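Changelog entry: the Bifunctional protein FolD record was regenerated in this release. Current contents:
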Amino acid sequence: MILLDGKKTSADLKLEIAASVKKIKEEGKKTPHLAAILVGTDGASMTYVNAKVKACELVGFNSTLVDLPEETSEETLLKEIENLNNNDDIDGFIVQLPLPKHIDEQKVLMAVNPDKDVDGFHPTNVGRMTLDLPSFLPATPFGILELLERYKVETSGKHVVVIGRSHIVGRPMSILMSQKRKAGNATVTVAHSRTKNLKEFTLQADIIIAALGIPEFLTGDMVKEGVTIIDVGITRVEDVTKKRGYRLAGDVHFESVSPKSAYITPVPGGVGPMTIAMLMKNTLIACELKS
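Regenerated C-alpha cells:
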C-alpha cells in the first residue's frame, strides 16, 4: 500500500511555482497576484482563506484579501467582483464559498471574469473543460489529476467509480478521467445518493474517488484487492479521546480499506493540500497568459 501524500506533493509543487515566480521577477515581468473575497466569519472559510494567503507568500505571489461583513448585500458583493474584474494587476481571484443565505451563489459565480476564474467554477471554464479545450480546471479535481500523474497511477482502460456528483468535484472528475489525458482514458461510472446496489459498482472499481461528504462511508467490504482510493471528504467527527473533542475523518474508512489498497490518500494530508497548490498553479497560468 502506497500513500498518495498530498502534503509532500503540494510542497514540491509550491517549490516549483516559487522557482517560476523567481524567474519571472528576475526577467522584470509582472508578479502573479491572487485575490480572495471572504463574506462573513465562517470558521472553516476563514481557515481556508488564511491558508491561501500564506501559500501566496510562500511562492512569492502578491495577494489581496477583500474581507466583507456577513450582512454585505448581493449588490455590494457584485460591485467588489466588478472591481477585481477591472483591476489589471489582479491575475485571478476567488469568492470563498459558502456565501450567506441572502446572496445568490450562482449569480455571484457568473459575475466573475472567466479569464480570472482560477477556481474553475464559471460556466465558460466548465464548458471549455468538458470540450477538452484549454481552461482553468477546478482546483480539487486538478489536484487529484496531479497526484495520480506524479505517483504514476495507471488510469488508462481502468474502471473509475466516482461517488458524488457535485459541480465542484464529482461531476468534473468524471469528465476529466474519461478524457484523453495522462491521468485519464478511463471508463467512468458516476454513483450518487440514488444509486442502487452501490457495492456492486465499487467492488468492480480499479479506482474509487469518494466525494460524497459522509464520514467513513466506504468500507473494506466494498472494495477489491489492489484498488486505488482517492478520498476527497473531510468531516469533523466527535471524539472525546481527542484534546480538541473531534477528529477529522474522510469518506473512506481508512483502517478497513487501506490493507486492500495499492494506493490511497490519507485524511488529512491527501487531497486537501493539493487544492491550494493547484489554485496557485491556476494563478500562475492566468498571469502567464496575460504576458
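The chain has a mean pLDDT of 95.
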